[in-house]
Amino acid sequence: MTKLYAFPRDKKKKYVIPAGTKYIEADAFAGARHLTALTVSAGIKHLSINVADCSSLRKIVFKEGIHGVYLYGGPVTDDTSFKSGLNIKVQ
């Protein structure tokens, strides 16, 4: 799989994007309410991630080698969908 268009909205816990993935649709994770952590592989060089309504998301890890990231809450952002306590790391 080299492209990720949609993440299952009811999938729970952590998700590691496979190393061979080259493209992620910007809204692939929007609405993933049970996602707690996301790891983005270095195979992706530039990406946008909409985290609207990802109320359980606490951690995003970007593997070293990613050149550009745009992280946003999308059009349905409210006080609970994009929390200031989100832990973002580069490894």
- How many angstroms separate the termini? 23 Å
The main β sheet shows up as: 4 strands, parallel
The strands making up the biggest β-sheet line up spatially as 2-4-6-8
> Could you say which overall geometry the principal axes of the C-alpha atoms support?
globular
Name the poorly predicted regions. Answer: none
SSE order, one letter for each helix or strand: EEEEEEEE
Estimated helix fraction: under 10%
Total helical segments? 0
Structural class: mainly beta
Percent in strands = 35-45%
Rounded to an integer in angstroms, the radius of gyration calculated over CA atoms is: 12 Å
Count of DSSP E strands?
Answer: 8
Integer tally of domains: 1
Query: What value does the average pLDDT take?
Result: 84
Give an account of the 3D structure.
This protein has 91 residues and is mainly β. The protein has one domain. 0% of the residues lie in helices and 35% in strands. The chain has no helices and eight strands. The chain has strands spanning 3-4, 13-16, 23-24, 35-40, 46-50, 59-62, 68-72, 87-90. The strands form three sheets. It has a four-stranded parallel beta sheet, with no helix packed on it. A two-stranded parallel sheet has the order 1-3. The radius of gyration is 12 Å and the shape is globular. The two termini are 23 Å apart.
